[in-house]
Amino acid sequence: MAFSRRSFLGAAATSLAFSGFSVRAQDEAVEAETYLNEVEGYGELIADPKGLLDLPQGFRYRVIAQAGETMNDGLLVPGKFDGMGCFAAGEDKVLLVRNHELSVSDIHDGPFGLSQRLIDRIDRKRVWDFQNGEVPLPGGTTTQLYNLKTGQTERQHMSLAGTIVNCAGGVTPWGSWLTCEETTLEAGLEVGKDHGYVFEVPSAHIGLVEPVALKGLGRFKHEAACIDPRTGVVYLTEDLADGLFYRFLPHDRRNLAAGGRLQALGLVDAQEGGDTRNQEEKSFPIKGWKAVRWIDLDGVDNPYDDLRRRGHRAGAAIFSRGEGVHFGAGEVYFTATAGGAAGSGQIFRYVPSPAEGQVGEKDQPGKLQLFVESQNDRVLDYADNLTVAPWGHLIICEDRYSDTLRNHLRGVTPSGKVYTLGRNVFAGNSEFAGACFSPDGTTLFVNVQSPGITLAISGPWATVKA
Mean pLDDT over residues 305-319, rounded? Predict the structure, then answer.
């Protein structure tokens, strides 16, 4: 684990008078730091004596869930923690609904243990799909009842079973979690059904929910979703280098299974819908705004995995790996993990039309802003899941896969300046994911995908300096 700048330079200053430690060496130490702050935020990170999570002064964390633990239903907490939503559950309690991004080959990291010894504990009628018609697929969601006052988990269980690659998702205004499959695996030799759908998990449900694929929301490599509580419109991201940004206009905003219209965002002033990636051609200025239009899509069940290509030909804009999306104060924020000239990521802000999805929208179109584009991977690198903090800043999870780099939690101010909130010590597939706040704003929950842990972080949130 890298030293924090404060601890390293403190040690260097002490030794300077005795060993002739050079200013150049100090400069090299600064250059070796894993992050740079554009604004102070909460100050420098302090090396964690437990060697897990580095946080600023005054912050603390608790590990509240780990892969492999036995849950109340007798199953094991699956691995590969990813997106997560937090819901009020009475005085001092919250419910966390957590995704598990497990593929078919991750069967031994699923909820049934080695040799699938716990498989008889599950109701097979409530499983979406099986491997080779026998073993439930290992992905899905778990639900955890957590007591904020005692810091204890009171209940934990499998809540959706038989899906795969459950990446991110989003909360609904009525207290459920939309979990998204980031795959378009077809029914065939390994699995019995097509995949690439969104499923809804009511947060208060105990036990397995009945799995219903929300097919109107499209079949593609879904990443995340959010809902505008004013209009009921669902916004969706697609994690591909040539992905689109979608919206779903539901026939019944409280029943997404009733269907609706799926559309993709295009830029009004761009030829062929536009390219937001700023790589071959820098066409979208940072902090710039562009009017948008929405392109109707057909064939959204997408048997040929070409929905994005057909959408782009019809006028939809391209985004480079759309990932986290969150609805803030009347606006949508979403990330493009590999966008930008440096390939280190972008954050977009979308302000819906006053007539979003209705007649008159063309006269008052929604607006898209390139809010942040990283120029330096020590400032921001591979922005993935995100949430809006109670004080209006964005909290960003990084997901760079590397044996040498470290992933960070970043804060972003309303002016688009970035600061660092945390750093985990794990290399490789150790992305942060699932950041979400408790309803009272005291606790930030976040996952580390590998080795599979959920953290509850508390501290002096009100002291942020921007």
Answer: 97
Q: What is the pLDDT of residues 389-412, one digit of tens each?
A: 999 999 999 998 777 678 999 999
- Full DSSP string of 108-165: GGSTT-GGGTTGGGS-GGGBS-EETTTEEPS-EEEEEEEETTTTEEEEEEEEEES---
CB 227 within 8 A of CB 243: no
- Say yes or no to pLDDT of 237 above 50: yes
Q: Any bridge partners for residue 418, and if so which?
A: 412
Burial letters 156-172, b for 16+ CB under 10 A, else e = bbbbbbbbbbbbbbbbb
Lookup: tokens for 281: 């051609």
The tokens for 270 are: 């761009």
Tell me the chain's radius of gyration from C-alpha atoms. 22
Q: Tell me the average pLDDT of the chain.
A: 91
Please state, in angstroms and rounded to a whole number, the distance separating the CA atoms of residues 198 and 275: 26
Q: Which residue has the tokens 């408790």?
A: 438
Encoding tokens for residue 286?
């940072």
Q: What is the pLDDT of residue 168?
A: 97
Residue with tokens 């600061």: 419
Looking up tokens 């809902």 gives 227
Is residue 250 predicted with pLDDT exceeding 50? Answer: yes
Tell me, yes or no, if the pTM score tops 0.85: yes
Torsion of CA 406, 450, 196, 234, to 10 degrees: -60
Q: DSSP assignment of 404-420, as one string?
A: S---EEEEE-TTS-EEE
Structure-token pair, residue 340: 């930008």
- Nearest CA among 236, 172, 234 for reference residue 204: 172
Place of tokens 């819901």: 87
Worst-scoring range by mean pLDDT, 24-28, 223-227, 277-281, 425-429? 24-28
Residue with tokens 């970043």: 410
Closest CA to 115 of 135, 130, 96: 135
pLDDT computed for residue 282 by the predictor: 86
Residues 433, 385: contact at Cβ < 8 Å? yes
Closest alpha carbon to 163 in 95, 86, 76, 101: 101
CA distance from start to end of the chain: 27
Peptide bond into 451 cis (omega under 30): yes
| Residue 214 main-chain phi, psi, to 5 deg | -85, 80
Q: Which residue is listed with tokens 């309690």?
A: 93
Biggest CA–CA distance in the chain, Å, is 75
Query: At residue 380, does pLDDT exceed 70?
Result: yes
